[in-house]
Automatic annotation (TrEMBL):
Pfam families: ROK. Coiled coil: none annotated. InterPro entries: ATPase_NBD (IPR043129), ROK (IPR000600). PANTHER family: BIFUNCTIONAL UDP-N-ACETYLGLUCOSAMINE 2-EPIMERASE_N-ACETYLMANNOSAMINE KINASE (PTHR18964:SF149), ROK (REPRESSOR, ORF, KINASE) FAMILY (PTHR18964). This is ROK domain containing protein. Belongs to the ROK (NagC/XylR) family. The lineage of its organism: Bacteria, Candidatus Falkowiibacteriota.
């Protein structure tokens, strides 16, 4: 007798797009995507509902019940995990009890978490980190985010502020953090920069060399603090990772204090691809 499937919906809210999936516990049944609006909260909520509605319609066609909705959103939540304190890419949702507002719009209970934590949850449970207990996930896309999976769950810290790698200072003189440094060297347009590097523009190649160096130092700092078994890299930058990943690995190994860790810690690309964050959000509904 085949095992019955549990269907959930996961929403991944990024700086440029809102994507959602209908997930059956093993695979994505359907996905849908729209642009992220930033003009006002009402428009944002309308677009979230607009990505969910087609998935609910598919579930009705399949005659299956959707058992929950999860949402992963870039930003820092309060200690309760309900209020968005600060979203770097969507300021209109700052200081909003976002789960409650989305629930009212779509008419279903919603669980929410940080997008990078959703990403690492998916990769640790069914993706590239499946066979590891200590996994650090890193998203590099519109911005930079991180999440730490340790012994079967995401680590949030005492105040739900753990793993905010984007805020890691990389230049003490100027106070520049990792995400600010990323935007600065990419001239706020990583997509264009990667295209220029791919066709051999020497200045663009230098930019990616510098980003690889900065990322490698950040990964070494994380390694020296929590000693993960593996880093899983996701986000839009994965497509251009050949431009910086080897440099990042070299820089990381040079700055890890433990020679044993430097040899063994792995850096791999996401196995679940563009849907990883949405899958991780869907998996929120299966948490006990």
């Amino acid at each position: 007798m085949s095992k019955s499937k549990t269907y959930t919906i996961g929403i991944d809210v990024g700086g440029t797009k809102i994507s959602a999936v209908l997930f059956d516990g093993e695979k994505v049944v359907m996905d849908y995507m729209l642009a992220t609006p930033k003009d006002n909260l009402e428009h944002f909520l309308i677009m979230v509902k607009a990505v969910v509605d087609p998935l609910l319609e598919r579930a009705r066609e399949m005659k299956v019940v959707v058992n929950g909705v999860g949402a992963g959103i870039a930003g820092v939540f309060d200690a309760s995990g309900k209020k968005m304190l600060f979203s770097p890419n969507i300021p209109t949702i700052n200081n909003v009890f976002l789960g409650e507002r989305i629930e009212k719009f779509i008419g279903m209970p919603v669980l929410i978490d940080n997008d990078a934590k959703c990403f690492v949850r998916a990769e640790a449970l069914i993706g590239a980190g499946k066979n590891y207990k200590n996994v650090f996930g890193l998203i590099v896309g519109t911005g930079i985010g991180g999440g730490w999976w340790i012994n079967g769950d995401v680590y949030n810290g005492s105040h739900r502020g753990a793993s905010e790698v984007d805020a890691m200072i990389i230049d003490s003189a100027s106070g520049l953090n990792l995400e600010q440094g990323y935007h600065k060297i990419m001239q706020n347009n990583p997509g264009k920069m990667s295209q220029e590097a791919i066709i051999g523009d020497p200045l663009a190649e230098q930019v990616y060399n510098e980003f690889g160096r900065q990322l490698g130092i950040a990964l070494a700092n994380i390694s020296n603090l929590i000693d993960p078994e593996i880093f899983v890299l996701g986000g839009g930058a994965v497509a251009s990772s050949d431009l910086f990943l080897s440099i990042a690995k070299k820089e990381m190994k040079e700055h890890i204090n433990s020679s044993d860790a430097a040899k063994k810690i792995k850096i791999v690309k996401s196995k679940l691809g563009a849907n990883a964050g949405a899958i991780g959000a869907a998996l929120l509904c299966g948490k006990s």
